[in-house]
Design brief:
Among the domains are: 64 residues, no CATH class; 72 residues, no CATH class. It is built from twelve helices and no strands. By secondary structure, it is an all-alpha fold.
């Protein structure tokens, strides 16, 4: 009996909210303005019923998607057609860190956002492989590598410069000059050794540099730092 009364009270509140929204949004003569009003009110009140008053299918689907996201309810997302469904699914998947839901998204744009954001949130670089855009995929690996100091994530980066910067950042962060050897470009590798030599005040690290000019400058820099301390 108590459960029935509680359910009735909820329905009454929903109906009152819907009626209040309808009264306030029917004033504008322009249908576009009325639809915008219903959209704003529906999101503000988290009222799915208010979305049904919207005439434009595009705006209505956007409205339903926003309610699905606010309620963290994938079933609401599944009731929509088109891009709004993809957007809604991606946002709910990200909120729940459930990358399996990303598989239900056919649009590459939202699929990539879904997989990348979840990979970064969970710090699982193996999920980055699901990102189809090469630039975004590299960003995915790079972000996780830097956040976790796991150089293995950097190794999957396709762009050589981005790869080397990722490796160098972790080498410096962990004070591990041996990682400088993992760079793909000579100059960035030499700069990596130079940074570590300065931080550790150890000129022997400079010997890892390939270019004589950089190696010599590195050694002189370390000696100058030590001389100032003495």
């Amino acid at each position: 009996m108590k459960k029935t009364i509680f359910t009735l009270l909820i329905l009454i509140v929903v109906l009152i909210t819907a009626c209040t929204i309808k009264d306030s949004c029917e004033k504008p003569e322009d249908q576009v303005l009325r639809d915008d009003c219903y959209l704003d009110k529906a999101i503000e009140k988290t009222s799915l019923g208010a979305c049904n008053n919207i005439q434009s299918d595009l705006v209505k689907n956007s409205c339903i998607a926003e309610i699905g996201i606010k309620n963290n309810d994938i079933s609401i997302c599944n009731s929509i057609d088109g891009k709004s469904k993809e957007y809604c699914t991606a946002k709910v998947a990200i909120a729940n860190e459930d990358f399996s839901l990303c598989n239900d998204i056919s649009t590459l744009y939202w699929s990539d956002i879904c997989n990348k954001d979840i990979a970064i949130a969970t710090e699982d670089y193996m999920i980055c492989v699901k990102v189809t855009n090469s630039l975004e995929q590299d960003i995915c690996y790079d972000t996780i590598g830097r956040a976790t100091n796991d150089v293995n994530s950097c190794f999957y980066i396709k762009n050589d410069t981005a790869h080397d910067k990722c490796v160098r950042t972790i080498a410096v962060s962990t004070l591990n000059e041996s990682l400088c050897e993992e760079t793909r470009t000579v100059v960035l590798g030499d700069i990596c050794y130079q940074k570590l030599a300065r931080l550790k005040e150890d000129e022997t690290i400079c010997n890892g540099a390939s270019f004589f000019e950089i190696k010599n400058a590195c050694i002189q820099m370390v000696r100058s730092i030590l001389a100032e301390k003495n």
